[in-house]
Each structure stands twice: as C-alpha cells, then as structure tokens.
Amino acid sequence: MKWTREDFLGDAVTTARKLIGTVVVSKTPEGITAGRIVECEAYGETYQGHKDDGAHVFKGLTPRTRIIFGEGGHAYVYLIYGMYTCLNFVCGHEGESGSVLIRALEPLEGLDLMKKRRHQTKEKLLTSGPGRLTQALGIDMSYYGMDLTGDTLYVETREKGPWPLEITKRKNIDYAIWGKDFPWRFLLKGSPYVSK
User: How far apart, in whole angstroms, are the C-alpha atoms of residue 43 and residue 13?
Assistant: First the structure.
C-alpha cells in the first residue's frame, strides 16, 4: 500500500519508527529501483526539553531548510562533502520542522541499475549509507521538494510488521551539544544492510 500525505503528518520520531520495514521506490527513465528502509534518523523535534541542535532547522528558516517547514510528505535533499546527496522525508504539518534522514536500505528491485550507478558489485555496499542509497536510486538535487505521494519517488508498505527495532544515538553529529545524545536512530534489528 502506497503512503499518503496523512502518513507523513506525524512527528519525526513516530514517523521514523513507522518507516522501518517500508519500501522506497524510485522511478526514473533508466528504470525502477527500490529498497526496504533498514535505518533512519529523526530530526528537528524537542527531546527532554532541548531543541534538536543536530538538525538543519535548529537555526530557523533558511533557503536551504524552507521545505522542512512545509507540509509533510515532501523530499528534503541536500549535498554533503560537495558531491553526495542525502534524502530526508519531511514530517508533520506546515510550520513544524521535523524530518527523517534515510540512512540505509536493503536493495530489493533494480539491482543491476543500482550496481551500474554505484560502480559497485557488492550488494551490501549498494545502499548502506545515505550517500550510497541516493546514488543507487538516482536521486540528485532536482528531487528537492518532490512530492513523496507522487509517481516518481514514494513509500510503500508491502509487508505488515512489527519489525524488530534497535534504537541508538544518531551518527556523525558530534558538533551538537544536546542532539548528539538523542536516541533517534532506528534500525531494523539484525539487518546486514545498516550503515557502519
């Protein structure tokens, strides 16, 4: 079942938990690729009275973060290291500021196309990391603001859970005073496809 706008209107932490086990589908002129979400991180909410200083929205509305302050169900795509894109799903209602970073997928469809895009033959390395999975799915900066309820990039619930979760601190945000300790990284327990 394809996710609707309503599925993205919860807070980021709740949405991140729900996303584990769902499938991201990307349709491009080259073909269809898809993968099961096995790792994601919530951003932009408040935890134990502290705002998320690990989130891009911590400093408020900027040209880069404007989409996150809009209605849930849109893609927030940004560049890291000047060359890799990261895919986030905007959550909540307009004026709120939650999003979920998709960190790793289990490749399901279009593996040959993923291997071609990634110049990689090892299945574990196709989509285990935020920069790898966007490359494998063909997601670039033109996807910024894309409607996740459309026909190009969307989420499906293919199998009913519950999916066993592992919960940890988020990765690579040591600059954050409070946010580095928020337990907002969700993993499909035992998956070999999570990022290292």
Answer: 8
Q: Which element (helix H / strand E) includes 76?
A: strand 75-80
Structure tokens at 59: 């400093």
Report phi then psi at 6, rounded to 5: -55, -35
- Tell me the HSE value of 98 on the side-chain side, using a 13 A CA sphere: 20
Q: What phi and psi values does residue 40 have, to the nearest 5 degrees?
A: -155, 165
Single out the residue of 155, 144, 157 nearest to residue 74, CA to CA. 144
pLDDT in tens, 28-87: 999 999 999 999 999 999 999 999 999 999 988 999 899 999 999 999 999 988 789 999
Using DSSP bridges, classify how beta strands 31-43 and 153-156 pair: parallel, antiparallel or unpaired.
Answer: unpaired
To the question of pTM greater than 0.90 for the whole model, the response is yes
To which residue do tokens 């979400």 refer? 37
Tokens for 19, please give them: 């996303």
